[in-house]
């Protein structure tokens, strides 16, 4: 019988299935093939010359994506640059690659050094070369060459992260103020042939938003970027103001790209895993967006339509607006879970879990949290006011005090947004 005392085990089973389905090396290997003189994908055929393949990998999944590509390439020589986040583990399986560990979610000097090195590599290419870009989430911060001083860019980034803007809005600004975003790496690679393989961490799989679209046309204009900053009452930098006055439209060009993994794949794997446990499982769309608090409250309301033995699977990417003292700890998944816990307080035999597939929910060591109708009661017994913690964006401290609610996976090496599970158990 499906019982709530097994909720954590059920969550762990679904998480394992999700992560296996979007394991970056496997995603790349299954998406490409080589013959004597061609690189083949599901939708593209790239003619190869005799020169070594150049691979530029950027993102939290850069190392395993590179290793998957090297494995598929076999004896064909590859060289390039790999840029990933500080704290990621593993090694690139070839000595022909330079590896950079950069700052995230705020770019640091290594982010700039890595971007400059990529531009140097691309500048030496000719029409006889082929460049394969391997792009995954986090790339916007990890590979950056801002048009303003780095400290000013870091300050602007911090304001945007605290504002509650969504990733699409943030990346429209990045594309205008960064020399390696919005298609500029594809332009730098010309006249070499290019192909981009993408592990999507963006709702809707918008290639121009993932890692700020380094190899695809910009998502918006400078005027759009100014509008975003005005929307969140953030001062418009002089650099952006000058670009906006030129009224230049987004550029367009043809640069082939293909997705190798996304949230849909992870959700389908969770569906199969939940069914194997005995749940009547359902994937619900559209994917979640908007403030994490509201998403948590909305998720709690879905239990009204669930019957015993059902598991509802949702996904997406919510946002957090920093309020209160600004000293709270947490991430969007923990904030969503705490808002849901308050909404289901006192309910029996239901559980909600939300986690980030990259294993990192905000600046914490947790990927998310698991809550039930007794979570707030447990907090009350310890003198913890859940509503106050939520108002101060301090969900991590709340759950950490309870001792058995946080989901900790460590960095997973992949990144395809967040997943949310709702379970309704037998009484």
Write the layout of secondary structure elements.
Blueprint: H1 7-21, H2 24-31, E1 32-34, E2 38-41, E3 45-47, E4 53-58, H3 62-73, E5 78-85, E6 97-102, H4 109-123, E7 130-135, H5 139-142, H6 150-163, H7 167-176, H8 184-189, E8 193-199, H9 222-231, H10 238-245, E9 257-261, H11 263-277, E10 280-283, H12 292-301, E11 310-316, H13 332-343, E12 350-356, E13 368-372, H14 375-381, H15 386-391, H16 395-402, E14 406-407, E15 418-424
Parallel strand pairs: 4-5, 4-7, 5-6, 7-8, 8-9, 10-11
Antiparallel strand pairs: 1-2, 2-3, 11-15, 12-13, 12-15, 13-14
User: CATH topology of the largest domain, what is it called?
Assistant: Rossmann fold
CATH classification class of the largest domain? Alpha Beta
- Structural class by secondary-structure content: alpha/beta
| Radius of gyration, CA atoms, in whole angstroms | 22 Å
**Largest sheet geometry:** 6 strands, parallel
Which consecutive residue ranges, at least 5 long each, have pLDDT under 50?
none
Strand order of the largest sheet: 6-5-4-7-8-9
Q: What is the count of distinct domains? A: 2
Which strand-content bin applies to the residues?
Answer: 15-25%
Distance between the termini: 10 Å
The CATH architecture of the largest domain would be 3-Layer(aba) Sandwich
Q: Residue share in helices?
A: 25-40%
CATH superfamily of the largest domain: Glycerate kinase, MOFRL-like N-terminal domain
Q: What is the number of beta strands? A: 15
Condensed summary:
The protein is of the alpha/beta class and 427 residues long. Helix content is 37%, strand content 19%.
């Amino acid at each position: 019988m499906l019982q709530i005392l097994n909720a954590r085990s059920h969550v762990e089973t679904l998480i394992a299935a999700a992560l296996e389905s979007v394991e970056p090396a496997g995603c790349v290997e299954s998406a490409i093939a080589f013959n004597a003189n061609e690189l083949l994908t599901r939708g593209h055929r790239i003619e190869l010359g005799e020169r070594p393949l150049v691979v530029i990998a950027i993102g939290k999944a850069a190392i395993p994506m590179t290793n998957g590509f090297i494995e598929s390439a076999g004896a064909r020589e590859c060289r390039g640059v790999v840029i990933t986040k500080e704290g990621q583990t593993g090694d690139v399986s070839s000595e022909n690659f330079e590896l950079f560990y950069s700052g995230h979610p705020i770019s640091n000097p290594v982010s700039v050094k890595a971007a400059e090195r990529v531009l140097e590599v691309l500048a030496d290419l000719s029409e006889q070369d082929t460049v394969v870009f391997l792009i995954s989430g986090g790339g916007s911060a990890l590979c950056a060459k801002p048009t303003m001083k780095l400290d000013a860019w870091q300050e602007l980034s911090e304001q945007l992260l605290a504002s509650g803007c969504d990733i699409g809005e943030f990346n429209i600004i990045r594309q205008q103020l960064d020399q390696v975003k919005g298609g500029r790496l594809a332009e730098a690679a010309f006249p070499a042939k290019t192909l981009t393989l993408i592990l999507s961490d963006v709702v809707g799989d918008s290639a121009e938003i993932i890692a700020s679209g380094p190899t695809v046309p910009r998502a918006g204009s400078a005027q759009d970027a100014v509008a975003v900053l005005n929307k969140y009452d953030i001062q418009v930098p002089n650099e952006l103001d000058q670009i906006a006055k030129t009224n230049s439209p987004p550029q367009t060009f043809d640069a082939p790209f293909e997705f190798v993994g996304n949230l849909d794949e992870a959700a389908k794997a969770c569906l199969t895993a939940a069914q194997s446990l005995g749940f009547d499982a359902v994937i619900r769309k559209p994917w979640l967006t908007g403030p994490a608090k509201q998403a948590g409250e909305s998720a709690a309301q879905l239990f009204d339509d669930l019957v015993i033995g059902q598991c509802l699977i949702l996904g997406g990417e919510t946002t957090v607006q920093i309020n209160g003292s600004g000293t709270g700890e947490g991430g969007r998944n923990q904030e969503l879970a705490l808002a849901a816990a308050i909404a289901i307080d006192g309910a029996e035999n239901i559980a909600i879990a939300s986690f980030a597939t990259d294993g990192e929910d905000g600046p914490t060591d947790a990927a998310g949290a698991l809550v039930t109708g007794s979570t707030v009661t447990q907090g009350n017994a310890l003198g913890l006011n859940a509503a106050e913690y939520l108002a101060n964006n301090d969900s991590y401290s709340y759950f950490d005090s309870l001792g058995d609610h946080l989901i900790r996976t460590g960095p997973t090496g992949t990144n395809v947004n967040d997943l949310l599970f709702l379970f309704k158990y037998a009484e």
